[in-house]
Amino acid sequence: MKKITEIAVVTGGGVGIGEGICKRLAQDGIKVIVTDIDFIKAKSVSDMICDLGGQSDAMQLDVVDEKNIHQVVENILLKHGNIRYWVNNAGISKIAPFLNHTNELWDATLNVNLKSQFLCCKEIIPHMIENGGGAIVNMSSQSGKVGTNEYQAYCSSKFGVIGLTQSLAKEFGEKNIRVNAICPGVVYTPMWDNQKYDYAKKKNMNPEDVMEYFRKKIPLGRLGTVEDIANTALFLLSNQSAYITGQAINVNGGDIMF
Length: 258
Hints:
Layout: E1 7-10, H1 16-27, E2 31-36, H2 39-51, E3 56-60, H3 66-80, E4 85-88, H4 103-130, E5 134-139, H5 152-172, E6 177-184, H6 191-203, H7 210-217, H8 226-237, E7 248-251
Parallel strand pairs: 1-2, 1-4, 2-3, 4-5, 5-6, 6-7
Helix pairs in contact: 1-2, 1-8, 3-4, 4-5
């Protein structure tokens, strides 16, 4: 009997950690639907996967647009079949003193980092129930476990992701749906190209010293890599983690340990 290829959808898959997750899942034989608000970036990642012999497609997705989420999911189901795995990776990050946190910054951060995961889970879980189960990975952060000054919107959104993850895991475990969160530490991605200047201002240090400052704090003596997070995502989606749900897994080299 021919093996049915499992399908995974990754939000924010066009760059950084999302791109790494897409590539790692494809290496394991999973058909990956790369979604991103920037279709050109999503298509580039998808094409790269296909060029390397994997299976992939790209779709534009605005994760804060409920109608768009519904349309994309329906298109995937029609074109590719049942969605077994979903990775809520799309996110934004901005360092700013709390008294400079505007309503717009707060709303944008909570919408993209937290509400989007609520909307995507609300859309995909009924399909997973109908098809006998599935696995969801939500991207949180170690800043979802430890609050940080000048990072209130981001921390609040990532704490919320862990609460959402635990609640969904409790409610849908009996439907064979596992929901876990990943809490990365510092991983150098394009997001840090601009953010390191804000962090340097906060710490009154040279922007070029920011990554080394982080590295020295980490017991394993290095920053995280995209591959570290991608490997964890694959594990949490796979049957190797069949008895793991509702967890917020630190992937941070020991920077925090709870």
